[in-house]
Amino acid sequence: MKNMKPEDTHLNHEELLLAVVDRADLPPVRRQHLEQCARCHQALADAEAGLARMGRRARELAPAPGRPFRLPASVGRERGRRWIPLWLTAAAAVCALFIAVWGPSWWARQTLPEGPTVAAVDDEQFFQVVDQLVANALPASYQGLASPGAPAVPVDLDAADDFFDWVVPAIDDDEDLLT
Amino acid sequence: MGRTDAADNKGANKDGFDPAPLVMQARNGDRQAFHRLVDHYQPQILRMIHYRTRSRMDAEDLTQDVFLRAYKHIGRLEAPALFRSWLYRIALNRVRDHHRSQRVKSLIGFVSTASDDFRETEATADAPEAPERLEAHAFRERMAQLMESLSRKEKEAFMLRFFDELSIKEMTAAMGKNESTVKTHLYRALRKVKAAAGDGEAFWEVP
Q1: CATH for B102
Q2: Is A77 in contact with B75 (Cβ distance < 8 A)?
Q3: What is the pLDDT of residues A79-102, one digit of tens each?
Q4: CA-to-CA distance for B70 and A85, rounded, in angstroms?
């Protein structure tokens, strides 16, 4: 028994069941053994015969049709309609939903003129004004005073005189005050 | 068992009946052609449903419904040669629907159910002569005992193969599974039936 080759051993129960399902599923060596071994061949035939007997008995005990089927005159066949696979229906539904939700905004984007939008132009102008205010917070006439090193800015001389008169009043004015 | 399914490839069933020409005629609206198909397959479908519902009345009703649906949707059948498998598929779905509705009815107390099989009462059952009835009862009990441990799919595979005599290829179409899955269900079913039969007995002998 120890030196027995696989092709020499008889089919076990598992292999027998495998052969009942489909003997082509047996490994080639075991299939070859089945073809050559009378004992295994008989075991398989007995198993198949037992199952066939079982099926035959079930069929014998089942009833014969009592009501012959005839199509009602009103029944029609489906015409011109082919089976649409479920996945295709689902894909179409997703596409329709996508178009319904994103379609209008996509269309609006497509119809805008090329280049910056009106809003973008407004933003740009606004930030230019802000930049200018940050860089030159004082009126132009005072910028030279606030920043001595800054480049000379044309000053309105009358306004400058008024400012100095207010800061350092003239003596004549004092005299007027004394009188 | 173990047949090569060569007949399936040509469209003819094991009994030599080729449904394809009649199916093509029925698709073109020929009602007589459809009736000829019904005449050939009605006994098989009725038996198949009867095994699963255990009620002759339900089996008759469901069989009528199967053929009505088949006629309405015959245009959808892509391969006329697989008409028989397609009928079995419709029938399996109708049986499943029937069992579901029976469960719902049982929940609200309209019918009583016993496990997964619905047994008819003596009043609605066929009433054959006593010895035959006893023998039939013994056979059904034996079947129920052998298949007790099988899952729904395993039971389906076993019955389609050995009671309804479908080939593996026909089973794949009827069950909507690939060949490997069908064979796996069948193999497991056989193992469990073998185990239920016991070592001391011949291979699944039945009374």
Answers
A1: 1.10.1740.10
A2: yes
A3: 545 556 778 888 888 888 888 888
A4: 18
